[in-house]
Structure formats: structure tokens, C-alpha cells
Design goal:
It contains 12 helices and 9 strands. The two termini are 32 Å apart. It has 2 domains: 2-89, Phosphorylase Kinase, domain 1, CATH 3.30.200.20; 96-326, Aminoglycoside 3'-phosphotransferase, Chain: A, domain 2 (Alpha-Beta Complex). It has helices spanning 2-14, 57-68, 96-99, 105-121, 133-140, 142-152, 158-176, 214-220, 229-245, 254-281, 292-305, 310-326; strands spanning 21-27, 33-38, 43-48, 76-80, 85-89, 180-183, 192-193, 200-201, 208-211. It has 330 residues and is an alpha+beta fold. The strands form 3 sheets. A 5-stranded antiparallel sheet has the order 1-2-3-5-4, with helices on one face. A two-stranded antiparallel sheet has the order 6-9. A two-stranded antiparallel sheet has the order 7-8.
Length: 330
């Protein structure tokens, strides 16, 4: 309440004599909160990022990069870095996830692919943090630490740890061999907004310079909405063709590009299972538990396709059996 009152005072100072009504807009998995500030003539959004927990400067950096690429991101109306407040243009409250209820998927997803090509076409090295081996591996390690040990309650044997490490190395080898571009890192149906200009892109503060297929895996193997394989493959091919025409460094052979995408999806899903478990057990946020089965389904499907990932498939069998024994229903 104290920060909300401070925000109200900040707005009053920015717009003397103009009354505004502040209401919760959304929250995310971090300490950031968003408020919608409604004025008589317009609506704006306040990002509240307590400096003791969050740093708004990465968001501002990526906002400038993505805006320069020509995609639709919130405009910065005012900022207070000392207090951790940003006042932004309002992209509305309709996410792709909610818009799909009455909007043809192609109407949303083809522009999302175009926007991704635009972002990637603006890429250059040395601007954003590297999505390097250390970061990719740190994300994979969330799986044994939080999903296996904490959530499922299993202690892996030395042999199982060794097998899991071997699978991780195989995944990392493919990930790190990919061409690099700007990566949003959470490019999916909850972070894309539907409106007059699709998509509105939000929640990009963790952007990095990394594997070109990463955002495609986020979008087409979304933890919150499932597409049949035929539809996902159609969009993937469309992206690949657009990317080649734009001169992006995608593989010339689609089969090789598809394998990159599959292995990138495996890395992301392993990480996401760990993150969702951590959000529940450490942060008390249980809203993501219901999304775990779809993420595990994606991971299982990839492991079934590639022989060198089969040790992970056997481990998933064991974990799912354990879930049944202890009554996990998510």
C-alpha cells in the first residue's frame, strides 16, 4: 500500500490537476507489479519494480532495441529509476492467450512470426548478455534441484546423475552450435498482447543474445496453450521461409533447423519444470502447477524422437510413476 500511495503521488506530480484511478493490471513471477492508471482522456500503465529486488534498466535497454527494430512495445512516458517506477503506454489487457477464444490463431500468430523476424534482423553481438553455456546449464540444473529433489522427492543415484549430465551435455552441444540473435526469452501467449497492432510485446527485460530457435520454441511449444503438431510445424516452416528471405542465419536444411528447435525446446522445458517447481516451493505461487503436465508432455515427445535423449525419457517414466504413488495431480 505504501508503494501504491507513492505511485499515486508521483503521478500527481507528473500531471498536476489531472486525477487518475490506479488499479492492479497484472503481476508476474518476479517482484514486479503493474498498475493501470486511468485518466479522463487516456489509460497508462505503471511498472512498479522495487529497486531492492528489481532493476528496470535492462527493461529500458531492451525496449529501445525492440522499438528500433520496428515492433510494438510499450512507449516510455516517464521514469523514476531511484524509486523503480516506469510510466508506459497501455497495450491493453487482452493477451494472445485470452484472444484465442474468439480470434483465428493465424490472425495472431503470423504477425507474431513477422515481429520475431524483425527483432532478430536487428540483432548484433555485444549489446545484450550472452545466452552462454554457463547460463544454459544453470537453467538446466533447476530441474534436478527443484523438480526432481524438491517437488517429486526423489534422490537420484550416482548412475542416474551421470546419465542426466550426459543428456544435458548433448542438449547443450546442439543449443550452443546454433546461430545467435536477440532472444526475448519468454515469447509466448501471455506476453503477446492482441489489439490494433499485433503483437504488442511485453515482459522482455530478460532478453539475451543466443540461439535463434529459442523464441520459436517458447511460442510454438507454449506452456499455456497446446497446438497440434501439424499446426506448429506449419508456423515453423513459415517462419523458416521468412527468416531465409530476411537473410537471417537459419540452417539451409529445414530438417537441421527443426532438430535445433526440438533440442532448444527440450532445454526450455527442462528449465521451466524447475522454475515452476521453485515458484511453488520457494515463493508460494501455485498457479503454475497446472501447467506442468503440458510442459512434461512436450519434453517427453522430444525425448521419444531422439535416441540420445532416451536416458531422460527413462527418468521421466520413473518420475511420473513416483508422482502417481504420492498422489501428485498438479
Amino acid at each position: 500500500m505504501e508503494r501504491k500511495n507513492a505511485i499515486q503521488g508521483w503521478l500527481a506530480g507528473l500531471f498536476p490537476g489531472q486525477e487518475s484511478k490506479l488499479s492492479p493490471a497484472s503481476a508476474d513471477a518476479s517482484f514486479r507489479r503493474y498498475f493501470r492508471a486511468e485518466f479522463p482522456d487516456r489509460s497508462l500503465v505503471v511498472m512498479d519494480a522495487p529497486p531492492s529486488h528489481e532493476d528496470v534498466r535492462p527493461w529500458l535497454q531492451v525496449q529501445k532495441l525492440f522499438a528500433a527494430a520496428g515492433v510494438h512495445v510499450p512507449e516510455v512516458v516517464a521514469e523514476n529509476l531511484e524509486q523503480g517506477y516506469l510510466l508506459l503506454s497501455d497495450l491493453g489487457s487482452t493477451t494472445y492467450l485470452s484472444a484465442l477464444a474468439d480470434t483465428p490463431a493465424d490472425t495472431l500468430y503470423r504477425p507474431a512470426l513477422d515481429a520475431l523476424v524483425a527483432i532478430q534482423s536487428a540483432s548484433r553481438a555485444g549489446v545484450l548478455p550472452e545466452y552462454d553455456r554457463a547460463l544454459l546449464k544453470r537453467e538446466l540444473d533447476l530441474f534436478p534441484d527443484w523438480y526432481i529433489a524438491r517437488h517429486i522427492g526423489i534422490t537420484l543415484s550416482d548412475a542416474e546423475k551421470s546419465q542426466l549430465d550426459t543428456v544435458f551435455e548433448r542438449i547443450l552441444a546442439v543449443n550452443l552450435a546454433e546461430p545467435k540473435v536477440f532472444v526475448h526469452r519468454d515469447y509466448h501467449s501471455r506476453n503477446l498482447m492482441a489489439g490494433e497492432r499485433n503483437p504488442g510485446i511485453i515482459d522482455f527485460q530478460d532478453a539475451v543474445y543466443g540461439p535463434i530457435s529459442y523464441d520459436l520454441a517458447s511460442l510454438l511449444k507454449d506452456a499455456y496453450v497446446e497446438w497440434n503438431e501439424e499446426q506448429a510445424l506449419d508456423w515453423l516452416i513459415r517462419y523458416w521461409e521468412k527468416a531465409r528471405k530476411a537473410g537471417l542465419p537459419v540452417r539451409a536444411d529445414f530438417a537441421e533447423f527443426h532438430r535445433d528447435y526440438e533440442y532448444m525446446g527440450a532445454q526450455r522445458h527442462i528449465k521451466v519444470l524447475g522454475i515452476f517447481a521453485r515458484l511453488f516451493h520457494r515463493d508460494g505461487k501455485d498457479g503454475y502447477l497446472k501447467d506442468m503436465p503440458l510442459v512434461a508432455k512436450y519434453l517427453r515427445a522430444t525425448c521419444e524422437r531422439y535416441g540420445e535423449l532416451k536416458p531422460l525419457l527413462r527418468l521421466l517414466d520413473k518420475l511420473e510413476n513416483r508422482q502417481a504413488q504420492v498422489g501428485y495431480t498438479f
